[in-house]
Design a protein that fits this description.
The chain has 498 residues and is α/β, with parallel strands linked by helices. Helices cover 27% and strands 20% of the residues.
């Protein structure tokens, strides 16, 4: 097949800013549907993205349109994450639909930020946009992206801004040669910045002022509503692809305005690992995106919704079942046919380490056993090199299960009468519990009545041990483990294919 490739085609937006676009299309006079990918990561090397074979898309009868978003790489303007993608997506869809090589119908593709840009474009409702394919993405840039359960996603956001948005683009962001070195040094020393993140703020204020805006808006409100994509039920159908270990899995499951024609695929993938092979677990050949043939799944979906040809674009829900290590097609979203399961904290008295006997059991504990935390483990963090903690008095935190040992539904609570330490310890307790509740929210997911959990006993025990204190308080304090909760991330109103 002969191809026509056009580089840096100027596409004017409604406010006059010009965004530059690459077009890959078959050398034919017959108009074809267009597939649009809008990326902040450079259109040159990312045509189609890591999961799709762009040549097969073009050979399948599509014009592939890849655009640098506003303020990135070849495009003009100022980059403001999430802020301009609705209007710019609408304008670009309209531009593509009006080209003589396009038949007037447009679909969108892309991973991560590119997926969020699709939801923004859908919210702007351009008439030519007929289908979406957001991959490991979310429609909400706050919950699950910038914040998680109220906690700022420092580990993700700081590295994303420094490594993916600034590195290689410092001068484009208005920086100097010294700033280029500063960004490189920040990336090389990011582990230290995680311990003292305020040290990066002067650099980020100059090059990425939106980072401070995120910090200054910790709660939901008008700021985040203005950045969140909220398409209505008239939006185009979406092929939503997620990964069981992806940072944006909750967003993949909690899509806006579910409708008929949507399709959900979830594999044993993380945000960047698409082969189903992890250091701890190998899921087999069937788990590989290439073996699954993600390009074929996209082609079938777009053939159905852009060309009106072919059978149904696939099963409404298809997920990879760990354990069986095979693809299954449940009747509804993951967990729709499950029943609630109550689990109870229990141990033989040594649940404090991963080698201990801490467990979650279907029935209440038969006896009350005290797990005692040794003094040298009373710290939440290891000592710094050269720090001598031997002379410091430490408290011993005794963690006991409540009489019924149950797991409830609203947060880690430590307001049991079993807490008998000083008021200063209570203050420490509250701050640590808030910290570890946020930690727990990364690992505990409740979807459609089924509760998925990872290391529940360890998180609860560690959070409660965090109530221990040291230095001036040497006597032991007891914390009774009352209620722990599996965080509900909100997928109950999702009706895939309904």
């Amino acid at each position: 097949m002969r191809l026509v490739i056009e580089r840096d085609v100027p596409v004017p937006m409604s406010d006059g800013v010009v965004l530059r676009t690459d077009v890959y299309r078959p050398d034919t006079s017959r108009p074809l549907p267009a597939l649009l990918q809008r990326t902040p990561y450079g259109k040159g090397p990312s045509a189609g993205g890591r999961s799709l074979d762009w040549m097969r898309l073009v050979e399948g009868g599509y014009c592939l349109v890849v655009q640098d978003v506003r303020g990135r790489y070849a495009s003009d303007g100022v980059f403001r994450p999430f802020a301009d993608d609705a209007a710019d997506g609408r304008d670009t869809v309209g531009w593509a639909a009006g080209q003589d090589w396009c038949d007037g119908t447009v679909g969108m593709i892309g991973r991560s930020y590119e997926g969020l840009a699709q939801w923004h474009a859908a919210a702007a409702a351009p008439p030519a946009l007929r289908a979406l394919a957001p991959h490991v993405a979310t429609a909400d840039p706050r919950e699950g992206w910038t914040y998680l359960g109220g906690a700022f996603q420092l580990g993700f956001c700081l590295h994303w801004v420094l490594g993916d948005l600034l590195h290689g683009q410092v001068e484009r962001a208005g920086g100097t040669t010294a700033d280029v070195r500063a960004v490189a040094e920040a990336l090389d020393g990011i582990d230290e910045l995680y311990r003292a993140p305020w040290r990066a703020l002067p650099l980020l204020d100059r090059l990425a002022p939106y980072y401070r805006e995120w910090l200054e808006h910790p709660g939901p409100g008008a700021y985040w509503r203005g950045l969140t994509a909220a398409p209505d039920r008239e939006r185009p159908p979406a092929l939503v692809v997620g990964g069981w270990y992806d940072i944006f899995l909750p967003g993949s499951l909690r899509i806006p305005s579910p409708r008929s024609g949507d399709r959900l695929l979830i594999g044993p993938w993380s945000h960047c690992v698409t082969g189903g092979v992890f250091p701890e677990r190998r899921y087999g050949l069937a788990a590989d995106e290439a073996e699954f043939d993600m390009t074929a799944a996209h082609l079938a979906f777009f053939d159905r919704h852009l060309k009106g040809v072919g059978e149904e674009a696939g099963l409404p829900v298809e997920v990879f079942a760990s354990g069986a290590d095979s693809w299954v097609a449940p009747n509804g979203p993951p967990g729709a046919d499950s029943v609630p399961l109550a689990l109870h904290l229990d141990s033989d008295g040594d649940a404090r380490t991963r080698h201990g006997s801490g467990a979650l059991r279907p029935g209440p504990p038969c006896r009350e056993v005290t797990d005692t935390q040794p003094p040298h483990r009373g710290h939440l963090h290891p000592p710094h090199p050269g720090e001598d903690r031997r002379a410091q008095p430490h408290a011993v935190a005794a963690v006991r299960p409540a009489p019924d040992g149950r797991l409830a539904q609203h947060g880690i609570r430590t307001d049991s009468p079993g807490l008998n330490s000083a008021q200063s310890v209570a203050n420490v307790r509250e701050s640590k519990v808030r910290k570890y509740r946020s930690l727990a929210m990364k690992h505990l997911i409740h979807i459609q009545g089924i509760r998925f959990c990872a290391a529940v006993a360890a998180l609860v025990a560690f959070g409660l041990v965090g109530a221990s204190h040291h230095a001036e308080h040497a006597r032991a304090s007891t914390v009774t483990a009352t209620d722990c909760h599996l965080t509900h991330l909100g997928c109950d109103d999702t009706s895939w294919g309904g």
